Amino acid sequence: AQKITQTQPGMFVQEKEAVTLDCTYDTSDPSYGLFWYKQPSSGEMIFLIYQGSYDQQNATEGRYSLNFQKARKSANLVISASQLGDSAMYFCAMREGKLTGGGNKLTFGTGTQLKVEL
Amino acid sequence: KAGVTQTPRYLIKTRGQQVTLSCSPISGHRSVSWYQQTPGQGLQFLFEYFSETQRNKGNFPGRFSGRQFSNSRSEMNVSTLELGDSALYLCASSIGMRGLETQYFGPGTRLLVL
User: Fold this and answer.
1) Which terminal CB of chain B, N or C, has fewer other CB atoms within 10 Å?
2) Which backbone phi and psi does A86 adopt, to 5 degrees?
3) Inter-chain contact A46–B105, Cβ cutoff 8 Å?
4) pLDDT in tens, A3-26
């Protein structure tokens, strides 16, 4: 079974609008972390936001927020007020805790290509 | 603070050759992880080093190896290159003390095997 599933290969959004990128995950480890990274065409992976499995509140970082629904095993990224520079590939990733020997190993989804239009 | 640096940025090799990629982590970071990104397989974890010891390993053949030096810089080596090794190789660093911190990535090395 896929550990991280991103069902939207591509998304379009109008500039200044909000957009939600979906991510579901699968793990039996009670301790895990969920990450979102942005990858522009240059290739570098840029860290956006992190949510720990025990965090009570949804994580926010500027225009990025993570809609964490633990029971549904989903960790959707919300980008508010989209900008042209947000056009990139977005990856959801999970790091499982020490119970499963996760350490610093990230498991990535297949990504969502976001295109922001004028 | 300077970010993660990787050298070289681009590399062209032929089948059968070997290649060494280098990664310098963010100052103070002791964990370095390597990932391979291909269109077909996506992003896959290769291995992680912490304090000069391999702490985690992915499902790659023994042709892929790595090491870490006392200054936390890491190298990755691929021997007997195959066409399928063409990929973007990404290095990531983290503080690494608990093995649970955010990883910050470098710009990657694009390897083309002909």
Assistant:
1) N
2) -80, -10
3) yes
4) 999 999 999 999 999 999 999 999
